[in-house]
Write a structure and sequence with these properties.
The protein is α/β, with parallel strands linked by helices. Bound molecules: phosphoenolpyruvate.
Length: 236
Amino acid sequence: MIIASNFKTNHTSTSTLQYVKELSSFLQKEDLKKHQVYVFPPATAFNFFELPHNLKIGAQNAYPVISGSFTGEIGLEQLSEYNIKSIIIGHSERRHILNESNELILKKFEFFKENRFDIIYCIGEPKEIRDKGLDAVIEYNFAQLDGIDLNYERLIVAYEPVWAIGTGVSATLEQIDQTLTSLRKKVKASLLYGGSVKVENTKDILSIKNCDGVLVGTASWDVENFKQMVKIAHEL
Ligand code: PEP
């Protein structure tokens, strides 16, 4: 299973250090070798962490350059200093709030693929598409995969319906199941679900046939909750 935490614009450098220490000692104590855990803190919280083998720290975003004149952005040089080799690309908050274009998303994918990053590539439909029914949902999600090398061996695809992110209302188990089943026909890579995953629904979501893990925002910011989720994954 893959269990990933997206801090978004939460936690400081100090609190992230505390979080990662706590999570690392938990992952070392339990026999959790089969599971891959990711934490995506804000870039200001990157650090020289001591990590167990199954915990990776990743970037929520970066610009597809080694270095250069891109004010406010970070590139490969800044990530490499902290040995960061994982990144989220295509998150709906970047697509919809920050107006990130498909063209830039594809550029990021190509650049970080060339640099052998683990890429959590996010797709997901807005509410008006979900309201049109499953066929429209599948068409929309497939279109977001256009141009992505689905054979890239470090690719992880996260299905995150926009209307379920940060709203406290997860997609139903049936909606997740149907969507992941359709995606599975096209995608060999691990498939995650994200969108208001909480301790209470983690077990049911992770029990869905084509669900290989979860990408969690809000509920993961508390390390105790996140540890619970990893434990639930382990107990399945
Ligand atoms: C996310 O940010 O990817 C996410 C799924 O957020 P939340 O769990 O808060 O819905």
